[in-house]
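Reopening this one. Same input as before:
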Amino acid sequence: MQKLNPYEFALASFDKVAATLDMDPGILKKIRVVNRELVVNFPVFMDDGAIEMFTGFRVQHDISRGPAKGGIRYHPTVDLDTIRALAMFMTWKTALVQIPFGGAKGGVQCNPKQMSLGEIERLTRRFISEISFIIGPESDIPAPDVYTNAQVMAWIMDTYSMMKGYSVPGVVTGKPISIGGTLGRQEATGNGCFYCTAFAADRLGMDLSRATVAIQGFGNVGSVSAMRLSEVGAKIIAASDSQGGLVNLNGLDVEALIKHKEKTGTVVGFPDGDPVGSVDVLTVPCDVLIPAAMENVITMDNVDRISTKIIIEGANGPTIPDADEALYQRDVLVVPDILANAGGVVVSYFEWVQNIQKLTWRENEINDRMKEIIYTAFASVFDLHRLKKVSLRDAALTLAIGRVAQATADRGIYP
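Same output, byte for byte:
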């Protein structure tokens, strides 16, 4: 499969749009590069008593609009360029939905599937102790990402709080409800994908209740999206995770599939579907395709075999630039990641606000506010897409980069 350095992907996307903006070239140079990056190598005691070394990263791309915001992932493929790219896209994401954050990202090179809960806890606490001087509720607020969850966020909050000597719930979002987490956070990214699917279908005149959907990545984002879409009558005909996938053109029983994955850890082995490879799900003919797994899965190697009307990027960076252009030329409507999966960071913002102000909001209030923000962003992007005759991705980046550039210009260059 064709591979691309994710940071080169991010820079190429920026350069394409920046060339069309009427902004000071010096300002664009500033926001093109990462502001701060930290690499740490740290030891962890394993269950057998051995000491293993791990490498972790925290990158802050831009903080001109507010504190840095971005998830922490645990994955064997984590590297500095991946984290740089994801931090940059977080900057554009927060600007697009107009919440007062900048962009950051973090990660540790590890395989949590081969680690015990105790080993993951010790890794988490040591990693946070290594980066504690650059994170905080007013400076940089982590959140869950690939293979991290509410429990990991609880350990982060506790470790940081122990170092401060008092509880600091606002240092991280995506926490358990018991320690300052917010209602609706776990489902937020999947709900945002569902809203974007509904908005896109409406713009194209597609009846979502008759639509067929394929989903690559049946984790939190993919499964929530599947459930919401099935509730309005859409037929989920294919789903996959890292271990494999399955297809049923008559429609999968989403609720049963979710229970199967919760019990076994994978969609593989679900009896109501024909087995296929994880990546093969991308080329199942459908009305809506949701890549909700990892980066760079839609490439020039498979783009010609993708047969769909709408792509909703539940994952970060699933489509490489050349493939994105090929899809645009074929009139496939690609709702880009910085819009499609922004529901998570929007509700993370709500969690942070509640922590800072010592408030709690009702779940319906949170969902209504998130839907309104996503709709406003979607409408702005779609209108610019039609006006400028550019892809939704270029329209979204034009709005986001322009806002960050304007904030940078308004603040000026210090000293």
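So the earlier flakiness isn't reproducible anymore. For the record, The first helix runs from residue 6 to 18.
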